[in-house]
Amino acid sequence: MKKFIFKTIFYIVLVLIALEGLVRVLHLYNDVPLDLYIDEYGIQKTVPGQAGFSVTGNRRMNFCEFHINKSGYNSYREFVPTKDKIEIALIGDSFIEGFNQHYYDSTGKKIENNLDNEVEVYEYGRGGYDMADQLYILNSYKETFDLIDHVFIYMKFENDFKRREIKPDHDLVNLKYTFKFQIKRYIKLLKYSNAIGLFDVVKNMIYRNKPKGHQKVEKEKVDENALAMEYIDNFKAVVNRYGFNKEKNTFLLDKRKTSPLFIDYCDKMGYKYLDFGPAFEKETKPTILIYDRHWNNRGRRIIAKVISDYVKKIDNRL
Amino acid sequence: MVFNSLEFFIFLALVFFLYWFILKKSLKAQNILILIASYIFYGWWDWRFLSLILLSTVVDYFVGIAIDNNTDKKIRKRWLWVSVIFNVGLLGFFKYFNFFVDSWVDMCSVLGYQIKSTWTLQVILPVGISFYTFQTMSYSFDIYYNKLKPTKNFLSFAAFVSFFPQLVAGPIERASNLLSQILNKRTFSYDQAASGLKLILWGLFKKVVIADSLAPIVDDVFANHATYPASTLILGVTLFSFQVYGDFSGYSDIAIGTAKLFGIELMSNFRFPNFSRNVAEYWQRWHVSLSTWFRHYLYIPMGGSRVSKLKSVRNIIVIFLVSGFWHGANWTFIFWGAFHAVAFIPVFLMGRNTIYKNSVVGENSIFPSFVEIGQLILTFGIVTFSRIFFRSESITGAFEFIKRIFSDFSYTEYMHPQGYRMIDYYLLVAAFVLYEYRMRKDERSPFNFKSKYVRFAAYTIVILLMMMFYDDGVDRSFIYFQF
After folding, report:
1. Of A57, A84, B230, B453, which residue is most buried, by most CB within 10 angstroms?
2. d(CA B29, CA B212)
3. Which residues of A touch B460 (CB under 8 A)?
4. Nearest CB to A4 within list B190, B468, B472
């Protein structure tokens, strides 16, 4: 009996070590999320110089290289705007951050290619950024953005207008010092197991017999117009606080998924927007990835074309 | 509680610890533990239906004694009928009542009489009822045929009926095998326990990697068969063959492995049915505990093959129809059984139904001969075709599926419903077939490598594959639970 217990434990340990090796060799684990920091303006960014691979799915269904530039964003180029060049900035959340694409084949790179490399595209993307973050960045780095010719703010109405101001999230940044984070950083098997949902089995077991208070309560029906008005109100507050350059900034949005009230408000107040919805609607093949909801290569190509065509139209230097 | 859940493994470790460390000196205490553990295991799903198991246990316990106490054949038979009527009655009520009512209403409607179906009941099918009722009946049959003496130890008998590793989906054990082990002192054997763990690992692999990963593809093909060409339908039903095999044989492996941890040997339930050279051999390898049950308690008492050819054919038809009906209260299963009868009868009439009984494909060589390969493909094709009935929701759905196979010959590349790479699954199935071919002579030794390093590599790869094909979005229940 002792032999059985001992050998079982021994084999389990050996198998775990072997699995750790295999997960590393096959690179099944995801290198993100990475170390974060909060800069002198209180903006949450990714520590520069980090590189690796973003992995989605149990069997590496999506496998993409990333590279964090000196500005703290995932991009193949450094952000050095000058008066002489034409620069375009894309600001947004994970769709602009683009961990699900090779960093050298991003939306920004595709725009540069479309415009015969006569422009430089800077992608200020970070998962979780909302309108407050985006306008705060534009305000904080005013000198930089003054040198950039066109700014596109990618927005999703249902997500991006929930705050009226930003507060640096030190808890998120400090996560890297926690034991759990450190363990996951060094033991790739744990990272992989977590990513494929193995730990959910434990969580589900724990919560299965808990009272209903622990379960998600069905969302109450909301008045969409009232919610849209509240979001517009938040937007007004953010604009009042951080400012907005109506000449240079353009919202990049999908009109099909944006409240008509907000569209009306933009039209009335002179906020420019570029609707990529019709271009997506025309496409018969999938425009998003299978394993998450981000744009796939085709989707990024469409976005890049919409932006390139627009810039060509409004900038007579091109 | 299901085998592929974390709850089960915590439960298993706890019961194992109590069984071998705390209660190892007392057989009675160990059997009580098995009984309590089995009732917890079953009650985890729905404690109300424990009463049915208890009832079936009590009835057959006393029926067994009553049969043995009487020498008069008529009275013995009467008591046997008590067991049969009670157990089949349970099954009939919970599993077939609605089927009979609906079939009656449908028949009346065909004859022009419109009857409202107000008699159907909202009953849940108790998990494992088809298995434990057959197991308890086999006890009464064996006593009736003087193959077994009844036990006076009620607790042990109750443990035999409800033994948790095989309670809900078999193997359907005979008392002569399982009860005798429960009644006798078990001693811990390292080799037996280690072999049990290996079987559990292999069973989990078959369930998680083969069955669960193919399930979304099969579900998609069968749900949308009207829109797919023949090539996709053939792919879907072929993968279903592997799914149902991985699911059910995986369950059996885990059951046999778990029982080994408690010093108990269960009968083999699957002996590589995909390597059968004719339909008769297939039935000697697929769900062995059920096919031998029907053979011993239905086919042979009806005369088996020792009667005229015509009567033997009749017996075969009856066996397959009953076997189909055992699987579920749906005409699809009856058609499935009938199809197998039609496939079996020519083999029987040619006298080839037992020629492969004691051999395996490639018996004396590494590779099968060309003839054998042809036989394997033909048998697999017949069996797989029959599964269209087995898997379809209705008989009309099954015929539509078949009609489309023979009417739409176009080929289009099949795309996984979740967009995954299909090549992963093709390679997986091919590797699985080759691996099983390698181990075809011993279904109980899935990691039969001489080198301990190769063995270790095999464990690691199997676990890694389980992780690589694990999908928390898939319904992980076992297919045979519904029977």
Report:
1. A57
2. 38
3. 15, 18-19, 22
4. B190
